Amino acid sequence: MEIMALGPTLRVMIDGDAARVYRQGDQVKGRVILALEEEEDIKMLKVNFMGTCITRTTRPLYVAGNDADASQSRRGYEERLELFDIVQILASRCTLASKKHIWNFDFKFPDLTQSRCSRWTYGSKYMKGPHPLPPSFHLCNNNLGGKAIVSYHIQAKLVRTGTKDINKVTQILAYHPSPMSAFEPKVTSRVLYAQTWKPVKKDRTIINRILTKVAGRVSTANAFPRIVPTLYYVEKIETGQHMPLHLSLANARDEFGVRNDNQPQCTLDSLSITISTFTTSMCGQPLTQPEDVTVKHVTCISRHDINQLVPFSRPTKLTTNFRLVDDVECVPTFRTCFTLLLDTITRRYSMTVVVGIKFQDQKFTIKSTTALEILPRIPREMMMTMGGIEENEEGDVDPLPLYVEREADVSFEPAPNYEMLYSSIPTSSSSMSTCLEGMNPRRERRDGAGI
Fold it and tell me: How far apart are CA 173 and CA 26, in angstroms?
């Protein structure tokens, strides 16, 4: 009986935790293991440390004279670009014996991409300068077969002499960029002149009109202000940081900007904050290849009947502990640029704030949409080495109350005393010994053997 030899077994082993999230500058160490059942002539054995950007999508394919099946026929598009490719040759044009061979590799995550785009493919104005590495990313959009992938992996490739079979083994690595220093959010103000609001004057009687003319302009300004809102927000924020948000209302009719405390004040009636996510993936040139855009809106805060006083010319705090959750959806803002006109994958965010204000018995709404750039958060271990955890991060957390022993409540029945309970059950010594002998068969065999 002839036994056929098994083919070579190729494996890639990464040192450390398999679920580790790498940062720029981190070392990736591991081993490539090749087990041979017989002597093999090796043409090439190499290991690649790669970063790739892949976009896929489909579009309906219409053929003349085949309108009935036009909805079922689709054309596929795919674009694959390399962020970087670091190669290490392990063996070349040699013969290896039938045993297990081990090679070590040591790579380092680069800080920037390595542009390898051809000007014949992407035009003469291709992007020469590299850009920061985007985070690991995987998204399936609404189009059939549409995907946007940013992947980093270690791949071992074996090519043997005399055969067309190629052995490949890939190990995926998770990557997340991180800033080298702590970031403090900066508050930006935006005056919303286009949303200036004036209360609607109601029909007044002749007596009220006469009293208003006698009182002069001061009473008119107090009763009917001209409200100009100003929104204070942040344009850049890290995940986990508090997002300060304030609103200020100014009365344009106040003389020389002097605030009058005697005039009627506004109250905060409702608040809604929505964060929108925009993901764009493109296959090839922007003028000839399709582009998929995925939009997602998440309502973070929705409050009604707040009834909070909003004085004029004073910034009023709208949020107290508004933070972005560091999860798989909160990917830092990024773009994979390869030409001046081509962004293969982009991820951006915007924040929409809708504030309902009440002035006496009238209501008006203030709405503002601003761009929001989400920055990668500094890992906790890096934060501790840089000088400790942020004070505001720990200060906003309410400590647990101290333990206070409560007095026994006589209304509840106390737990039974099991020693007294079982001691009160009448049992004979013979029945108890029989029960113990049945529960210990090994001791019964030893007694029978006379040991």
Answer: 12
> Do 164 and 41 share a structural domain?
yes
Which segments of the chain have a pLDDT < 70?
A: 1-6, 63-72, 115-129, 180-182, 201-223, 255-261, 284-288, 337-342, 380-451
Are residue 111 and residue 131 in the same domain, yes or no? yes
Q: What's residue 9's pLDDT?
A: 92
CA atoms of 134 and 136, how far apart (whole Å):
7
Shared-domain flag, residues 232 and 375: yes
Q: For residue 168, give the CATH number of its domain.
A: 2.60.40.640
State the pLDDT at residue 391.
45
> Same domain for 370 and 222?
yes
pLDDT value at residue 304: 93
Q: What is the CATH number of the domain that holds 228?
A: 2.60.40
pLDDT of 74: 83
> Domain ends where: 175, 202, 217?
175
Say whether both 159 and 194 belong to one domain.
no
Contacts of 226 (CB under 8 A, 6+ apart): 196, 197, 198, 251, 252, 253
pLDDT of residue 212: 57
In a domain, 427, yes or no: no
Per-residue pLDDT at 432? 47
* Tokens matching residue 183: 């970031």
For residue 257, what pLDDT is reported? 54
Parallel, antiparallel or unpaired: strands 362-375 and 316-317: unpaired
For residue 10, what are the contacts with CB-CB under 8 A and spacing of at least 6?
A: 32, 33, 34, 156, 158, 167, 168, 169
Is residue 263 packed enough to be buried (19+ CB in 10 Å), middle (13-18) or exposed (0-12)?
middle
The whole domain housing 19 covers 9-175
**Residue 413 in domain:** no
Residue 442 lies in a domain: no
Residue for token pair 């101290």: 402
Q: Tell me, what's the pLDDT at 351?
A: 96
CA distance 330 to 327: 5
CA distances from 383 to 215, 366, 396 (A): 62, 38, 17
CA distance 48 to 173: 13
Where does residue 401 rank: exposed (0-12), middle (13-18), buried (19+ CB within 10 A)? exposed
- Phi, psi (5° rounding) for residue 386? -90, 5
Number of separate domains in the chain: 2
Q: Which residues contact 421 (CB under 8 A, 6 or more apart)?
A: none
List the Cα angle 381/386/389 in 5-degree steps: 65
